Amino acid sequence: MIRRLQMVWRQSGDEHDPSRAWRRPGLDLLGGAALIYALWRGDWLLVAMLGIFFATSRVAWYYRTRVWRSLTLSLRVQPRRVFPDRPVELTLRLANRGWLPLPWLRLELHLPRKTEAQALTLQKSPYDAVLLLPFSMAGHQQVERRITVQVPVRGLQRIGPAAVHLTDPLGLEDSRNELASRTDFLCYPRVREIQAEIREAMPLGERRGRSFLDEQSQYLGPRPYQPTDPLRRIDWRQSARRGDLFVRTYETVATAQTAIFLDPTTARKPWDGIDSEVLERTVEITASLASYLIGRGQAVGLYVTGVFTEAAGKRPFSVRQRPRSGTQQLGRILAALAQLRPPGLFRNLPRILLEELPTLDYQVQIITVAPYLTKDLQFALMRASRGHRTFFLQTGPAEEGDATMPTRVRPLPVTL
Prior knowledge:
Shape: elongated
CATH topology of the largest domain: Rossmann fold
Strand order of the largest sheet: 18-17-16-19-20-21
Low-confidence stretches: 1-23, 201-217
Distance between the termini: 45 Å
Structural class: alpha+beta
CATH architecture of the largest domain: 3-Layer(aba) Sandwich
Strand content: 25-35%
């Protein structure tokens, strides 16, 4: 409620004086009553002073009205997706389309609280950081400022709103108006060098399921046609030249597929709360592991709940990315991990794992990443290990009372 009242006061004209909405009409009414009294008494000195007061007040009001109609501000962020150690460039473009000069302007830009800006001073609060930039403009002039900032934490980082403080040439009043709305950029989690003992390629041989991905990278030459060869492999040019059917042969490489199941819940018990250090370590290990596997040609999928986006509002939703290869799949995984927050006190990973097991091909290997091994997760891993090669990676400290590792589930040692 307090923040809503502050926003209403800011829109009314001045964040430093929230009573301006009702004080201004009161001053005008009091000045008008004093002017009538001075005319009735014949005090021409007081009449002149009040006339000067009303004249300057109207001039300042006319100046502010014309200026706000002619002033425009645009805000642009490049790039829109970065890693925590990469800078972001903010471009502010302020244009004065009128003929009145603007001698005293101050730009107010709201940034994330942990923003770092080079050679600039930020006023930080518990909610955000504010950047103030003073400048002046002439009539029909356009000013562009480029600011380089860096946000060292993952997540959807909001930039804005951007407001302008204007002081009239007489220095009587300071008004404020928001001219640019919010924009945002996505900060990926940190990806570190990782070493993991995990299978990187499936054995060569005939394809028995759709989960094998043929990479016909090298042409070996033609060979005589056999009844088991598919018709699409027939080399019609060689067949016509040699008078018999020949097929094209390639060096076949079938890449492995990995499904990563992530549990972001860090609380062992409901009253433990959220362990931020364990959560960030879990996210970084998952991002590094996905980058490591995709970089070696694997098809990787991600299954996790607790992702918050602007489209979903305040409700978390589950990400269930089927195993795919390529840099685009890595971008989808990093974007989901960047917006990951603990969904609550209930662990949904065992339920998601049991629901997805029937949809996974038998060649898919499963990696489960969780801070702790619970009994529900132990049961789900036992079910998964019956038909899949299953690994478990624990990111939190082990304590007495944790569930034991199932027999067929392999621990995944990871070195960052």
